[in-house]
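User: Here's a protein and a ligand (coenzyme A). What would the complex look like?
Assistant: Let me lay out the input and then the predicted complex.
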Amino acid sequence: MIVGNDVVDLRHPENQPRAIHPRFDERVFTPAERAGLTHEVTAHRTRWLMWAAKESAFKVARKLDPGVRFLPRRFSVQLEGKKWAAVRHAAERFRVSFCGGDDWVHATATRFDGSDATREPSGMVERVPGGESSAEYASARVRALARSAVGSVLSIAPREIEIAKVANVPVALRRKLLLPVDFSLSHHGRFLAVAWSLREQRSSQ
Ligand SMILES: CC(C)(COP(=O)(O)OP(=O)(O)OC[C@H]1O[C@@H](n2cnc3c(N)ncnc32)[C@H](O)[C@@H]1OP(=O)(O)O)[C@@H](O)C(=O)NCCC(=O)NCCS
């Protein structure tokens, strides 16, 4: 299964309702999505749930087609309660699951083809001790989490796993060979997140 994820720190100063650009919603959300942002009390969380759904679906779409660009309005989100969403992009459909706390949301996306309906990728979210970290710390720490996750799935010591990038997409290698686990990294504000799944040996994946 191919996975994409996105974590959003809901208390990050840059994504507060008064801090975002006045036309942010118009630029990134479709009219149908914006209709879900009319209630002041729920708008902030809903906005970032929908954003996380778009970004996590983009990360899957980009792995399926390296030519895909992140044009947020083209990833249309239909929320299904608080835990799920369906995302469409061109001819592709994605299934997104959410988890979260008072001050964060995490979205995990997979391609929706009907057969994956009962399977879920694994995931973890870590709060950075002591508050927001540097980009360097976040990148290093989220890779350490990914090496542990991939290592536990394949029973390999994390130190033997290298996280590299191919066309910007992170991949796991052991002795320069690609390991059969797909994963996705995200970090924002005080949070780091990894989602992962064994890669299927199917030509369509
Ligand atoms: C993927 C992207 C949307 C994530 O942005 P973000 O919210 O700032 O960051 P996140 O923390 O959620 O994700 C970053 C991680 O995703 C991974 N990532 C980056 N590009 C990725 C891609 N194309 N596909 C999958 N994963 C990707 C990286 O591991 C990155 O972590 P790192 O910086 O430690 O290496 C952004 O980096 C990106 O590539 N945007 C696409 C640009 C584009 O299409 N522009 C066209 C507009 S006209």
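Summary: The mean pLDDT is 94.
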